[in-house]
C-alpha cells in the first residue's frame, strides 16, 4: 500500500515544505483520507484518479480545499466524487460547508455526465469497501464527531487515528488487527501546551507516549502526523526523547510504501 501525506505549502522553488497545515492522505493514488490540501497538492495524474474520499471529521484543516477540488473538476467528472463519512459528519458538511452560502451544494448538482458528488454514509465498527480497500471506522475522542480508521488491501493494513486525545475503542480495533503494518497517529502540540491539547482534544508527545502503552503488539511503524507547524521542531525533539522503537514523523510529500 502506497501512502502519501500531501504537502500543504511549497517554497519559492516549488518544493514541498515540511509544515503540515492541512491533512490529506492519498492511498494508492486513488483514495483520500481527509481532503485539507486535496485541491492544491495532488499531482495531475492523481487529480484524474482520486474519486473516493473518506472524511474523518469536518474541521477546516481536513476539508479546506474539498469544495475547490470538486469545483475544479466539475465540467470533466464522468463519475461523482464519493464522500464517505458518518451520517453526522455528512450532516455537518451539508449544513456548514456545501450550504449554498459557503459553497454550492454539489450533491444536488449534475454535469453533462451525471451527479458530481455523492455521499456514502459509513457504518461504525463494521467493515465497508472503498475502491480496493476494506475499511473499519470507530469513534475517537475529538471535539466534533470524528472517526479513526483501519484500512486494509488484503495484504497490508494501516491505522489512522485522525484527530484525537485519549481514546479506547480505536485501540481495541488496532489491537485486534493482527499484522498491522503502520500506525499514523496525531501529535499536535508540544508538552508545554498540554492544557490547550487537552481542551482541543489532541495529543502532546507526553500524552501520546502514555497512550501508546495501550498498544498490545508492536513492530509496526508508528508515524506521527498533524504536528502544528508553529511548534514542529519542538514536537519532533520531544517525540525523539520518548525513545519508542520505530516511532518517526511522517514527511509531507514523501511516498511511503508498506
Ligand atoms: Zn480536528
Ligand atoms: Zn486537524
Structural write-up:
With 258 residues, the protein is α/β, with parallel strands linked by helices. It has 9 helices and 16 strands. A 7-stranded mixed β-sheet has the order 8-5-4-3-2-1-16. The protein has a 7-stranded mixed β-sheet with strand order 9-10-11-12-13-14-15. Residues 23, 59, 61-62, 163, 226 line the site of one zinc ion (ZN).
- SSE-based structural type: alpha/beta
Computed Rg: 18 Å
Shape: globular
- Element pattern in H and E: EEEHHEHHEHEEEEEEEHEHHEHEE
Spans of 5+ residues with little confidence (pLDDT < 50)?
none
- Helical stretch tally: 9
Task: Work out the helicity level.
Answer: 10-25%
Number of strands: 16
What is the rounded distance between the termini? 5 Å
Strand order of the largest sheet: 8-5-4-3-2-1-16
Heteromolecules bound: zinc ion
Q: Largest sheet at a glance?
A: 7 strands, mixed
Q: Averaged pLDDT, please?
A: 97
Percentage of residues in DSSP E strands:
15-25%
Quickly describe the structure.
By secondary structure, the chain is an alpha/beta fold. Helix content is 24%, strand content 24%.
Question: Helix and strand layout, with pairings?
Answer:
Blueprint: E1 2-5, E2 25-27, E3 31-33, H1 38-41, H2 44-49, E4 52-54, H3 60-63, H4 66-73, E5 81-85, H5 87-96, E6 110-111, E7 114-115, E8 117-121, E9 128-130, E10 133-139, E11 147-152, E12 157-160, H6 169-176, E13 182-186, H7 194-199, H8 205-211, E14 221-225, H9 232-241, E15 247-249, E16 255-257
The structure holds zinc ion (2 copies).
List keywords for this structure.
258 residues, alpha/beta, 7-stranded mixed beta sheet, binds zinc ion
